[in-house]
Amino acid sequence: MTFYRNPWARWAALGCLLMMITACKPNPQDDIPYFQAFIQENSHRIADDPYISSTVRPGDKMYDFFLSLQRGKPSRHYLKSLIKEGNTDAMVWYARLMIIHINERNYNRELLQRAFFEGNPYAALELSDIGESCFYLGKLTLHRQVAESLNLESSADSQLNVCAKENRQIAIKGFEQLAEQGDLRAQYFLLQQKQWDQSTKTREQYLNELIRFAKAHYYQPLMDYIDTILILPQGSNKYQSKTPEQNQLALELLTIAANHNYTPAINKLIKIKRSYIKKITILFNKEYS
Q: Which of 70, 95, 60 is nearest to 80 (CA)?
């Protein structure tokens, strides 16, 4: 006990602890070798299929809405007709878009509740403690049989807070079922819950999963990773990385995604290189087509 009464000893112990924590934290610089084989294999490939990286295609029910969302002008019109047909994905998206409007909040709650009862895990996530709608909504009456049908323990109280952890567990159970069916978005959500990217012990597994997703032309996980090594500082118009090697890695990964017609990657590359890319180039044609 005498050791910790000494202020210098306390600071020394704290310093050692911080050094241990820092040593266990992954260094993005160490990630570079894991991507090299993937980059060499894909850096010169250009996809002919304009929808190869899309989660929806022309003819899919949600295509028109996602196209309007991609263009920065999400249209509720497309969602309303789908809601009438009972499309629970449309219900969730409508609620997410309109949840900030007080005059529609009860209707949005009803949409999320309906989608929840019909087993949509995205609705369960919205009604959980980590859902974006958590801040805006009050309490919601949930029936115990919903959780029981998913083999989860239900609260003794049939009335749960929208921000309840129980709803998160229901969402996870639903995503597990989708993941088993090959749903890559569900698999990525579950990967995020594991937090493999936060430890040097599991970092390699995390990177391997990002590469697996990218090989299947699902590039959102790769974009999320790029956002951790290529930052746009507040008040600046220039993206920055901590090292030139990380900057080069980000550009190479963005190029691969852009060459496979992934619009967010195309847009980011244009923002990075706008000062010296002529508008006649393929990137500008892709962005504004």
A: 95
Read off the pLDDT of residues 33-76 as tens digits, 9 standing for 90 and up: 999 999 999 999 999 999 999 999 999 999 999 999 988 888 99
Q: Within 10 Å of residue 151's Cβ, how many Cβ atoms?
A: 7
Angle between the N-to-C axes of helices 263-273 and 220-229, in degrees from 0 to 180, rounded to the nearest 10: 30
**Which uninterrupted H or E stretch holds 165?**
helix 165-180
223 is in which domain, residue-wise? 26-51+196-288
Choose one of 121, 142, 177: the last residue of a domain: 177
Model pTM?
A: 0.81
Three-class DSSP category at 4? helix
Percent helix, strand, coil in the chain, to 5, is 65, 5, 30
Q: Is 4 within a domain?
A: no
Query: pLDDT digit string (tens) for 86-116?
Result: 999 999 999 999 999 988 888 998 899 899 9
